[in-house]
Request: fold
Amino acid sequence: MTNDHHTPVLLTESLDFLISGNSGAYFDGTLGFGGHSFEILKRLNPNSLLVATDIDIDAFNFSKQKFSDDKRFKIYNFNFSQIDLIAKIESVTSFEGIFADLGVSSFQLDNPGSGFTYRSNAKLDLRMDKKKAISAQDVVNSFAEEDLIKIFFEFGEERNSKLIARKICERRKEKRIESTIDLSDIISSVTPYKFRVKTLSKIFQALRIYVNDELEVLKTFLIKSIDLLTFGGRIVILSYHSLEDRIVKDIFKYETIDCICPKDFPICKCGKVPRLKILTKKPITPSDVEIKLNSRSRSAKLRAAERI
Ligand SMILES: C[S@@+](CC[C@H](N)C(=O)[O-])C[C@H]1O[C@@H](n2cnc3c(N)ncnc32)[C@H](O)[C@@H]1O
Reply:
């Protein structure tokens, strides 16, 4: 399903990995505008359950109204890291399939007022959940220079982090940084023209990851999800940058290992049991045709695993 708000990425591939039978309970942690959920529902029988959540209130409201007729579909406005709480509320003890399509939707990126992109002017914020305490505006106006460097370097992998952080600290003494354009002007003023787009993307990505605590939330979600998978159930994750993909890859890999004892132990004492079989030796990426039709799919990586 393509809609004006968001075109779902790797749709057929995601569903082919995710759905192992046409019944049971499924979980979509990143409902967005329902692109993947809509297709999951099409493949499930009338007695199944799809539980989905989105932390963004606009996405939640849109999908809640759009899918209100389908009694198999339960929609939440929770963080996906609360999958265990949602399962409890729905009296689900385990899921046949758990899915997440990480990051932000095209609606969040394209909506000029949402402040998720340096491409349009809006209040600098970057929180997906507006109830969270710290916004990007708070970070750039009040954090110490060393903390800004750390955020830009760790979460944006930006080589010019020191210079950008220094410039931010200089400029905020003259005037509070309030808008996306205020920040992008500062970044642009210390970045050669040919690197500008990349650097702006990296700094905005770094701030977004920080204010939403995206990497820790992802780890929590993956660990809880594996606990909640039915034997033979599938977990499918779409990620859009290397920091996320590495977390998915490492956690999946750890769950395939049968011993974590130190190498010099003569016999295994850890009792670790492998819980996953990896279904995608290498991550699945979109075809050239998909990238041509939807340029935002270009960085997507799909990893899937099965509970054993
Ligand atoms: C790429 S979009 C998903 C699009 C969806 N698959 C579709 O086809 O319409 C990612 C969505 O996940 C939401 N999101 C990101 N992190 C989240 C989290 N920790 N918990 C719940 N939702 C989250 C965002 O608000 C956004 O709407």
Summary: The longest strand covers residues 229-239. The two ends are 32 Å apart (CA to CA). The CA atoms of residues 34 and 66 lie 9 Å apart. The mean pLDDT is 95.
